[in-house]
Amino acid sequence: MPKPALKKCALVPEHIEKADLTQSILQHIVTTLGYDCERSGLDNIYQGLAYAIRDYLIQAWIRTQQQYYAHKAKRVYYLSLEFLPGPFLVNNILNTGLEPMVRDVLREDFDVELEDVADKEWEPGLGNGGLGRLASCYLDSMASLKIPGYGYGIRYAYGIFRQGVEEGRQVEKPDNWLRFGNLWEFQRQFHLYRVRFGGTIREWTDDMGRSRYSWMHDESVNAMACDILAPGYQNKYVTNMRLWVAKSTGGFNLDYFNRGDYVAAIKDKIDSETISMVLYPGDESDEGKELRFRQQYFLVSATLQDIMRRHRKSSMTSDQLPQEAVIQLNETHPAIAIPELMRLLLDIELLDWDRAWAITTRIFAYTNHTVLPEALEKWPVDLVGKLLPRHMMIIYEINRRFLEDVASRYPGDNERLARMSIIEEGPVRYVRMSHLAIVGSFSVNGVAALHTEIIKDSIFRDFNEMWPWKFNNKTNGITPRRFLLQANPKLSSLITGKVGDGWIRELDQLRGLEKYAEDAGFREEWMRLRRESKIKLAGRLEGALGAPVHPESMFDVQVKRIHEYKRQLLNVLHVITRYNRIKANPGGSHVPRTVMIGGKAAPGYHTAKLIIKLINDVGSVVNTDPDVGPLLKFLFLPNYSVSLTEWLLPAAELSEQISTAGMEASGTGNMKFALNGALTIGTLDGANVEILEEVGEENMFIFGMTAEEVANRRAQGYNPREVFEADPELKAAVDMIAHGFFNPQEPTLYHGLVHNLLETDWFMVLADYAAYMRRQEEVDEVYRDQHDWTRRSILNTARMGKFSSDRAVLEYAKEIWKTKPLP
Fold first, then answer.
1. Is 194 an annotated catalytic residue?
2. Tell me, what's the pLDDT at 255?
3. Residue among 672, 775, 792, 799 flagged as catalytic
């Protein structure tokens, strides 16, 4: 019997009308959720609408998959241990082009607004910061550009944590984002792969005289696929994240249960399913390290089995696999995929080493996101050997052959051999995952021009000398669909009214705004929208934090992971100095400022958590001082997320991008805020360098040392105490922290923090303080002239076209992946 055409079995027409959408929402409320549609609240309406949109998406997804097969498309597999997609509902509605219809249906038939319905969605806990958000931006662009491919990750039951603040301290709470389920996912319950750990390896010789390896006495867990759909922007193209969930290979132990040992009866099930329980389990303990490594292999093993399943459906040979697939490693977390593919090709497909290695090294590409040597991932050899004994054998052989190649090129250079080896020797031996990724990949890219030059000249210098053709730059980008069109709809409408809507797909078209920067009427409209957004944000923050926020003040924002190199501490010193200036001259001409800092500190990062406490302590003093009043407010924004970013973008006026030069790989927060018209105060670090080239130095506030100057100053013997003693304002600010002014109940709490500043100051906080304060004074002066500030704001937005993730993905597709958009 011939298979029915999709159009004959479609449940939702390709072109739907308002009546169809209303009926679909009501039908899901009744038949899917089991509620009386006459008594439905916002939760039911949200779920009914989400299911209706999902119905529309799944059929477009099926058509997209059919196109992949019809065109025999080479597919991109983007492997990332985290994604940070943000809430799905509004993004999916925008990308399908159904927003006007959805708004009309909700108002006319349900008497609610889309924003109220969208507030009922729980943000998915699949990522933590820039790494995961970048992966989600790239998936959006792959779909919008019709680049064949998927995102692969893990469907964590709990996100990293929900951040609370109690007595000024970060408190980590479980991020149970699945408490109400995830109605956007399709659980492929019959789509399971066995993932193996531990055991032993038996070497034997087959009838053809080949050495064979059997993995025996192992433990295993099943990986179940969960697909979350990712639509392109109004092009009827839908791809997906395929996220893996750990499922026990067996049920509970009935013998234990019948004997009354109920815990033992389910222990194996709980232990095996822990793999996908929590994003980034704490790795301070050996158990935490092992769980995290298990997560990495779990992702890799299931994904490669899925890739090989698709490969076997084609008529191509194993040698042609690189014509069908390219695997992008988003950082080193999935780098164990390299020996895993070798294992599959050697032990399952029975290829010889040279053929298997030739295939492997034409499939993998590696993106590096760090310049810090201490952040390069490495795993104890004993741990890898215990959990993946065959893989450790393969890694040793990869390393042996690689070092032979190095030795032949650089004879007698034993120090180079030690530096480049995949195995780090010492009392504890480690597998260097970045070295494994470089050796096994055909491409290694940085994520900003400065970052790429730094890794070529420092942490990967030896590899760049050996294989310069592998190294290339792909500056990060962000999706304008979420971070301008969705996050700032009124500004988007104003822009579209002047330059058309082509910018949504081709961000370079924003250049058409440049001429309007000189139009006083357009500047007035730009300012009006910014004021409205500030009033809206102020109301949200007062409701959430209970602190008054004055919309007339400048909104100064620094939101990112809390880390010493990102220098939230420098911002704190600025706030204290500003506070002292107001106290010394309360009647002076001060520009009102509301400074906001948000971000999570890793649970085991004591210094970062202490900085959060300091921010809150300083804020408690500043915000309650009657002499200061509305001239200065200092707020910590808890539980920073994609949703909070979307609140901030339309209202932020000054974007703090003040990391120590040479330490930020790229950053994407700098791009999001500049795209929405915030002016940047920042260092020449990461993508700030390229943003400066695009928007012009007169439209940014750049300060501080360059990466080269930082390195030279450290080498020359930098003495931070001399800087401290020479600057009265700096000394006053640091002394207030040291002597307990902001926390008299615990006057010695910050002694360690101050000691680090005065004795080492590795992150050059004190060294850059004076330059930073001078630039902040210039910020105030420019802000006094609102038309001048707004002109610069418009030019920032107009010149951010380069930083679209569409541009970045097209560069990956053309220069690394060698794949083309579907017709």
1. no
2. 66
3. 672
